[in-house]
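Predict the assembly for these two chains.
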Amino acid sequence: EVQLVESGGGLVKRGGSLRLSCATSGFMFSLYRMNWLRQAPGKGLEWVSSISSSGTSIYYAESVKGRFTISRDNAKNSIYLQMNSLRAEDTAVYFCARDDLGMADLDYWGQGTLVTVSS
Amino acid sequence: SSELTQDPAVSVALGQTVRITCQGDSLRSYYTNWFQQKPGQAPKLVIYGKNNRPSGIPDRFSGSTSGSTASLTITGAQAEDEADYYCNSRDSGGYHRVFGGGTKLTVL
């Protein structure tokens, strides 16, 4: 069974840093592109970042570029999101999600971890 | 353009057919994915590619695209289909993902 479990969320002050983790199981992690997405309270979905299976191709939304860093450890079947210079507008539930090897983007999601940035 | 536009809310009578639409220039070049999200839950992929359903998604869900408009059709809506629905695709460069603002579906 494919599972993705996010952790690391919490309350942080504006300008602070936080590192999110997404631990996976149930599939050959090293073959799959992975993503971080977020959803502000009561709002829609926003893609944050993607990382290729090898970690060599990385993309960021403009809203987080230069502040967030995505990474992965294929030996630990995990991806990470280092978030620096956090702003109030970064407050959201952060999800990790897998891209299928075929056409299905974002075919499996974790349950999310809440990040709250206080001013 | 990297924007996808959805109607904020749609309603349907139980057992009837409903279409949820998504407009955006990038839909002319890239497939649209559709996600269902119920309160307190993670989004679930219901349609991907040209018109494909992941395992476990009922066949009352279908997708189509015409020009810059993608549609998610639920034929014979059930009470459990009441949820928020989001369309998703790529931006014009192909590497960034974009989402519509979501459509809240109410089953009457």
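The mean pLDDT of chain B is 95. The two ends of chain B are 35 Å apart (CA to CA).
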